[in-house]
Amino acid sequence: MELLYEGKAKKIYKTDNPNEVICEFKDSLTAFNGEKVDKESGKGELNCEITTLIFQALEKEGIPTHLIKQIDKNKQLVKKVDIIPIEVVVRNIAAGSLCKRLGLKEGEKLKFPIVEFYYKNDELNDPLINDDHAMILNLVDNKKELETLREYGRKVNEFLINFFDKVGLILVDFKIEFGKDKDGNIILADEITPDSCRLWDKKTGKKMDKDLFRFNLGDIKEAYKEVLKRLKDAK
After folding, report:
1. How far apart are CA 215 and CA 146, in angstroms?
2. Do 163 and 57 form a contact (C-beta atoms < 8 A)?
C-alpha cells in the first residue's frame, strides 16, 4: 500500500478509490506534544476497535463520521477527508491544562460543558484559539463552520456521557477532529479512544486513559483492554 501520511498515532494509505483511504492505528504512545514517546504492543488494535464501536454508535445517533468499516485488527477503511486543522476539546470536569490555566481543582465538575478550539500545529504546541484566530488563520471558510464544529462537539459529548456512564465510566473531557468529505460536508474523523478522552472509573475514580502513560500511573494496556471489554459487553 502507498503511504500517504504518517502521524503520531496513525498511518494513512491510498486505495484504488480516490474517495477512500485506509487508516492504520499504531502502537506508539506520545504525550506532552511528543516530548514523551514510547510504544505499547497491541495498543493500536485496541484503539481501532474502540473507535469503530463508538463511531458506529454515533452514526446511529445521526452524527456523520468518516468510518466505512473495520477491515483488520488495527485498520479501518474510511472516507478520505480534508482535515480541518482545529482540535475540538469538550470538557465536563476540570483536569489537565484547564486546571493549570484557570486554577481549578482536578475533579471539579464544571457548571456546563466547555467547548474549546486548539490550532492543530505541532510547531506551536497546538495553542488554544478563539473564533477570530480561526478566521484570521483561514482554518475554516466562515464562522458558520465554527458553529458546526461546536454543535457537533456538544452532540458528541451529550451522547458519550451516557454511553460511557452505562459501562461505569465518567467522561471527563475529550478531543475530536473533523474533516470535509468530497462533497464539502463536515464529518467526524480521526478517533475517539482512551488516547483522546479522559475516562475515570465511576466506583474507584481510577484513571482509564492516557494519563496513565503521561504520569506513570499504571498499566495503560490493561486499562484500554478493560474499556474495550466494557463497551463490547454493553452492546
Report:
1. 33
2. yes
- Block residue for cell numbers 451522547: 159
For 103-158, the pLDDT digits (tens) are 999 999 999 999 999 999 999 999 999 999 999 999 999 999 999 999 999 999 99
For residue 91, what are the contacts with CB-CB under 8 A and spacing of at least 6? Answer: 98, 110, 113, 114, 116, 172, 173
Whether this model's pTM surpasses 0.85: yes
Instruction: Return all residues near 165 (Cβ < 8 A) that are at least 6 apart.
Output: 171, 202
- For 196, the 3-state DSSP assignment is coil
Q: Is the dihedral of CA 173, 209, 187, 129 positive or negative?
A: positive
Residue 68 has, within 13 A of its CA and on its CB side, a CA count of: 16
Q: Which helix (H) or strand (E) holds 28?
A: strand 28-31
Q: How far apart are CA 157 and CA 112, in angstroms?
A: 11
Q: Identify the pLDDT of residue 32.
A: 87
Q: Check: CB of residue 9 under 8 Å from CB of residue 25.
A: yes
* Pairing outcome for strands 75-79 and 67-72: antiparallel
